[in-house]
Specification:
- The protein is mainly α and about 140 residues long.
- The protein has 7 helices and no strands.
- The longest helix has 15 residues.
């Protein structure tokens, strides 16, 4: 039995599922893939690894959504403004991008709303990190 998959509303995935793809790229020496892009054959190799990693029954339905969201994330980062933000904020932006892309509404035909993504990532990247080691302000 074939499950229906609505390409106009791709299901959300866990941020860790999309972070897996970012980590996979980094391990393969392609940490700058969002900045420089990937060829179709490179994308297919990543998708093959997604298929293997999400092969079990409980995650099998998520693998198509992860692959589609990854492709949409690559397309979103092909724009000048997201590339500039990545160069400005560094690799910390990759984790934020994975979190954002995992939950952002996605229509395969139109992709992510890159302006909304840019604004969300810019706001997230400027927030100071919450540290568990805080120093007292006064003695």
């Amino acid at each position: 039995m074939r499950a229906h998959f609505d390409l106009s509303d791709v299901p959300v995935v866990g941020a860790s599922d999309l972070a897996f793809v970012i980590d996979l790229l980094r391990e393969r020496g392609q940490g700058l893939a969002l900045l420089r892009g990937l060829r179709e054959d490179e994308i297919r190799e990543v998708e093959d690894e997604i298929w293997v990693a999400f092969d079990d029954a409980r995650k099998g339905a998520a693998r198509l959504a992860v692959a589609l969201r990854f492709r949409a994330l690559l397309t979103a980062f092909s724009g000048r403004r997201l590339k500039a933000l990545f160069l400005e904020r560094g690799f910390r932006l990759l984790a934020l991008a994975a979190q954002d892309a995992a939950a952002r509404p996605l229509n395969v035909r139109f992709g992510f709303n890159t302006q909304q993504m840019l604004l969300a990532l810019d706001a997230s990247a400027t927030r100071p990190r919450q540290s568990s080691h805080t120093l007292p302000l006064a003695a």
